Every structure is written in C-alpha cells, then in structure tokens.
C-alpha cells in the first residue's frame, strides 16, 4: 500500500508540473503517513541528510565558480583556448569544449560552465554563421565535463550518499573526463567539416605567449585545489574553501575585475545556486527512506538478480535505466533515489565501485542535456532563443555514451589513476 501511494503520488505530481524535489518530498510524506510512521521522521531525515561535513564542499565550490565567472578567470581561459584550437574546423565550438575542460578543473559545476561560456560563445557562434541548434548543443554538452573532471559537485554528493572517498572519485574522473572532452572535439571537427562551419585564423606561437601568461594564475587553480586533495593535505571541503580564497585573490588583486560592491550579488547568486541541490538532497532523503520502508529496494534488487547474473549486462541495464530516468527526473534526484538501491548489487557482482560511480555520473550528466528536463539544455536553449527540441545535442550524446560503454568493457579507464596513487 505504501509503495503504491508513494509511486502513484510521485508520478501524478510530476505530470502536473511539480518540481522533482517537491514531488519527492510530498509523495514521501504521504507514504510515511499511510504507513503509520511519525511525521517527525521527515524533519529528522531532511536535517540529517544535509548535516554533512563532506557536503559543505558544495556551497564553497559554487561560490568559487561564481567568483571565477565574475572575476575575469573565465575570459582568460577562453583566450587561452582560442589561441590553441580556434584555427581548427569549427574553431569557436572547439574553444567551447577546451575551455570547459579548463573550467572543470576549478569549479566543479556544469551549470556554471553552461551559463558563463554560453553567454559569450553562443552569440559569437551565431554571428559567425553556426546553426543556433549546434551552438547551443556544443555548449550544453561540453558543460557536462564540469561534473566529470574534478573537482566535481556531483562527485561530492555521490560520495556523501555512498561513503566512497571523494578524493578517490576525483582521481577516477580525470581520464574519463579528458576522453569525453577529446571525443566531443572530434565530433565538432567532423560536423564542422561536413557543414562548412568557419574557423579562426592560425595564431603564431609568438602571439600565444601573452594569453597564456595572463591566464597562468587562473590555470594554477586546479593545481592548487587538486594538489591539496590528492596529496592528503586538504579534504575536498577544505579545498573548496581554498578555491574561494584563491578566486577572490585573483578577482580583487591579480585581475582587479572585482569590486566590493560585487560581493552582495555574488553571495546572492551562490545562495540561490546552492539551495537547489541542497533541497533536492533533503527531499531525496525522505523519498529514499519511504522507498526503503515500502520494500521497493528489495523488489528492484530481486528483479535485477532474476534478469541477469552477468556484471556487464547489469551495468548496461543500469545505464539504460538512468538514461530513461534522466529524461524525466533531475540527475541529482535520480542518483539519490537509485544509487543506494544498486550499491549492494555492485558489491555482489564484483564491480569496482569507482567504475560504477563514473558510469552512473556520466550517464546522469547525459540526462542534463536531453529533453525535456535537461538543465544544461534549458540554459543553452534559453541563451540561443530556441526550443530545447531544436538543440543539436544527439551527436554529443552518442559519443558520450560510446565512451561510457568503453568504460564498462575496460574498467582500467577509470581505475588506472586511483590504483596508481594507491
């Protein structure tokens, strides 16, 4: 009875346009009420889920990303990317992907990446003759790299849910993130040649010196952040604090593009951006608890065991489930609901936890660029002033999923660096 109420109310609320977080919270409360459990459990679950030292890294990395966008770091990273790949076929689109790789090493936020670079590069691509759909597609797709290459807010949340070392997750994401970035650049190259998209003039090496020199302080940010984590000198949360301090130093002292009056808007944007994932986590904990008490987890596990005893088939099924779920449910919510259900099976199948984590995270990020609810897709489409269904996203989805399947077959893509550091 409780499970029927939970799932039925959740689906009905989604169909009526209710946000995923609100739908999880309301349906969870209804299920617990029908099951006769005290409603005080709701407050306990919500507060307990966000009362986490690890999750403190989330607002700090968001704060750092906002400062970087407003403090001139993003512009300088775009400048470096332009002088190195702007002359390739689809030059400005190539710049978008490479700059996303740079930005990913500092902010950990795919949303911040899509918004900051999109406002600059999507209009510029349109002026150069790129299709609006392609411009929005490459921007939204490349932004997903921000959640794969560390530091990653998504990995911080995943680690808090599963008790897996966030530092190990960060190490595991480096190689897959770089491969995804290279794959997207190859897609841009192929489409640009076929469609005749323009490229910038070749930049002589002597003229590349100043853009690189001016961006060195910004490019050192990933070294500072990740070096502290991987060396064991800092926790991910402490690294987030360092990222904020360093971004403020660059914005106020080095680049001098920040003024004291900018701090209030920066703080307001940070609070607004932080509230969304935190509320999803809190609501997801109530929904997850309701799923547990209703026996949904055991039903799902029994079904998967009955379907297959092959770990490769299991992971393909998981990828398919997350792809379908990602069409309708926000990625963080999907992760909070289903990852705890799958984790006992991961151990039973003998699958490496880091390999499974990267496959889930990348598949979830694909959900953020597919209609109808992809967040990065909405951001890029809004900037380009087109419908989300006109965004040319599917070539990038295809290459990303192809790389994900390679990770299923060759787990060393994920486990090589963490194993080396051990």
UniProtKB/TrEMBL annotation:
The complex comprises the extracytoplasmic solute receptor protein and the two transmembrane proteins. This is TRAP transporter large permease protein. Pfam families: DctM. Keywords: Cell inner membrane, Cell membrane, Membrane, Transmembrane, Transmembrane helix, Transport. It is a multi-pass membrane protein. It comes from Pelagibacterium nitratireducens. The chain crosses the membrane at residues 46-68, 134-158, 164-191, 212-233, 239-255, 276-300, 312-342, 354-381, 393-417. It is found in: Cell inner membrane. Belongs to the TRAP transporter large permease family.
